[in-house]
Amino acid sequence: MVSIKSLSLAAIALSWASTVGAQTFQRLGTCPTLGCVFPPDQTDFLAGQYFDIRLEVHAPVNGSEATGKPIPDSNFTFTITKQGRRPQSAATFFNVAEPALERWNFTWYEDLFARDAKTPSLVNVASKIYRRVALYEAGQYTATLSYNNGQKTTASWLVRDLATVQKTKNIVLFIGDGYVYQIEVGSSNQANLGQE
């Protein structure tokens, strides 16, 4: 028969294990690996909507993600394809000049232990930004960032057609002064009591 004390100890151990497992900080959804695509995967656009595309390739110098290559891959490529068509480089697809390469770095703490020890991880970054681009045809698009000799980060984007505009027939206007319904009813009942 299992004693209450052993069950209590098991519960404490399990809660402690889940706490220790939750000590690490998560990467952004746009950067599931060392390559980042902004806007991220599963983004929806309206046809003709302007947006910027930011690409980043990370090269951690230290920490658990360090690859031994402290210089980020500056020869990364970025392609876009509409479903059923062939991939094209982003510059060709959007008919724009290839943007300039940017280089910068940042530090972050991989977990609470590194934060407490004040030992941040240094990450060098190579980046490009395509400004004010638009997808004019509705459909499913795939954006692929290729870097570090074969690694890839992919984002799927859905472009929706603009709905046909219908004329407005009725307008409903709600005006309130910030009171909840119960206060309004109570105050009107109180006012009615005074009139009797």
Structure description:
With 196 residues, the chain is an alpha+beta fold. The chain is built from four helices and nine strands; from the N terminus they run αβββββαβαβββα. It has a five-stranded mixed β-sheet with strand order 2-9-8-4-5. It is flat, with a radius of gyration of 27 Å.
Structural class from helices and strands? alpha+beta
User: Measured on Cα atoms, how large is the radius of gyration?
Assistant: 27 Å
Strand composition percent: 25-35%
The largest sheet has its strands arranged as 2-9-8-4-5
The number of helical segments is 4
Tally of strands: 9
Order of H and E elements: HEEEEEHEHEEEH
General form: flat
Mean model confidence by pLDDT: 84
Which parts are unreliable, with pLDDT below 50 for 5 consecutive residues or more?
Answer: none
Topology:
Blueprint lengths: L3 H18 L13 E4 L4 E4 L3 E11 L16 E6 L5 E2 H5 L7 E7 L3 H6 L3 E14 L4 E9 L3 E10 L20 H15 L1
Parallel strand pairs: 2-9
Antiparallel strand pairs: 1-3, 3-7, 4-5, 4-8, 6-7, 8-9
